[in-house]
Write a structure and sequence with these properties.
The protein has about 230 residues and is of the alpha+beta class. The chain is about 35% helix and about 20% strand. Helix 1 runs parallel beside helix 3 and helix 5 packs across helix 6. The protein is globular, with a radius of gyration of 18 Å. The termini are far apart.
Length: about 230
């Protein structure tokens, strides 16, 4: 899909956002709000949504300066706020996307496989920086993997992230596990947007780390744990 098509779809949803009951959004997710904006935290970053225009913006300085959210960010936020089910709730049981109730098993798991292989190669060179990045996003160690964290996708919706470094038998591997009831919070397609945004945020934080070097061979990632 061309970039202008993405922008067109995002702009359509921005307008569509205004058709929904914002008071209900505030109630359902205990959002902070004022006359101009709704506020929500998404993967360790503060966002606001204009109550009159629907624009999604993020800031890291208390909204003294703002950046408009990209397609993945905005569409994930719109979907959760506008289209989540009335009775959305967590089960605390995590599973891959291809095992979620109501999906047809295809073997394709959102958050693993070749789709994120390039990112897995980056993570493979910087496991310590990856772990720190997960913590910056609010993650706490949990689960199996060389780097394994439970992170707040939103304050009300956690996700499990796991990474295994390559060894003599296996390439590096990423796994994302979702709450078994995640599809009451967002559509299946939106999981792709959320996973893509997570990969981007982790990569950004790794590249800000003092451990990051343009030549990954200059850094010794250490040994990996058994799978």
């Amino acid at each position: 899909m061309k970039r202008n098509n993405y922008e067109h779809m995002k702009n359509q949803m921005r307008t569509h956002f205004l058709d929904y009951d914002q008071t209900e959004m505030i109630r359902k997710f205990s959002l902070k709000s004022d006359e101009a904006f709704l506020y929500i935290r998404f993967l360790g970053r503060n966002y606001r949504i204009s109550r009159s225009h629907g624009t999604v913006e993020w800031s890291e300085d208390g909204f003294l300066t703002c950046t408009e959210g990209d397609y993945n960010e905005s569409m994930t936020i719109y979907d959760v706020l506008c289209c989540s089910k009335e009775d959305c709730c967590l089960t605390g049981i995590f599973m891959p996307s291809n095992s979620l109730k109501g999906t047809v098993y295809t073997g394709l798991n959102i958050g693993s496989g070749t789709m994120f292989q390039k990112m897995a190669s980056v993570f493979n060179s910087y496991p310590d920086a990856l772990a720190k990045a997960c913590e910056v996003l609010g993650g706490i160690p949990d689960g199996r993997g060389d780097v394994a964290y439970r992170m707040p996708l939103f304050d009300f919706l956690p996700v499990q992230f796991a990474f295994w470094q390559e060894d003599e038998d296996f390439p590096p591997e990423i796994k994302i596990l979702w709450d078994s009831n995640v599809l009451s919070f967002m559509h299946y397609e939106t999981l792709w947007f959320a996973a893509g945004h997570m990969m981007r945020r982790l990569e950004e934080l790794i590249k800000e780390s003092p451990l990051y070097m343009p030549d990954p061979d200059a850094y010794n990632p250490g040994s990996s744990l058994p799978r």
